[in-house]
Specification:
- This protein is mainly α and 196 residues long.
- 64% of the residues lie in helices and 0% in strands.
- The N terminus is likely disordered.
- The protein starts with a helix and ends in an 11-residue tail after the last helix.
């Protein structure tokens, strides 16, 4: 695949995700593939099932970028039924190549599992955080504050929340404010791990 094609591929996936989410007729479900009739700048209509199939074919050639995009499509149910298990398998494959976004994604998968593996989630999230992924900082804060599969540690959780704020993570400031309120009022319930 040419360099131009590799750069354009994620753009088309992103465009399809945005278009699919905006279209009333494109609602991801667990019951079947998503299609949409969105017309993009007078071009032919997006075919999200076809887009999924293209991503799948490119992923089968070994393209790390395509595997990452395919994982996102499985996770969101775009062009295919939602399949979090397959998404997490692909995120792990890509994470092992060193891609920070995939490392953060597998960390979230491990936090969100029916039987969370806090130590493994911590490992992957720390790798992503070391590469500057704000969402990894935020999810490390949640991991430590909740004690998801590991011992809860408010000090570490607060430190990670502050570092997420420094990286301009949207939810991190609200989390810090809630922690302060919780210290005063003891009422706040921590949010779920950030969605992929």
């Amino acid at each position: 695949m040419s360099l131009h094609a590799r750069r354009a591929f994620p753009f088309f996936i992103s465009l399809a995700l945005l278009s699919g989410c905006a279209a009333d007729s494109a609602t991801p479900t667990d019951s079947g593939p998503v299609t949409t009739g969105v017309d993009v700048a007078g071009e032919k209509q997006l075919d999200l099932v076809g887009l999924f199939e293209k991503a799948k074919a490119l992923a089968e050639t070994g393209s790390v970028e395509a595997k990452m995009q395919l994982a996102v499509l499985y996770n969101k149910g775009v062009g295919t039924p939602v399949n979090h298990e397959r998404a997490c398998e692909l995120f792990r494959e890509v994470a092992e190549t060193g891609l920070a976004e995939a490392q953060a994604a597998i960390g979230i998968c491990l936090m969100s599992d029916k039987t969370p593996d806090g130590k493994a989630a911590e490992h992957w999230l720390q790798l992503a955080a070391a590469q500057g992924v704000a969402g990894a900082h935020f999810n490390l804060a949640l991991l430590y504050l909740r004690g998801t599969g590991i011992e809860a540690n408010r000090t570490k959780g607060t430190r990670w929340a502050r570092s997420a704020v420094a990286l301009k993570h949207d939810e991190a400031q609200r989390l810090l404010e809630a922690l302060d309120a919780n210290a005063r009022d003891h009422w706040y319930v921590l949010p779920a791990p950030e969605d992929l």
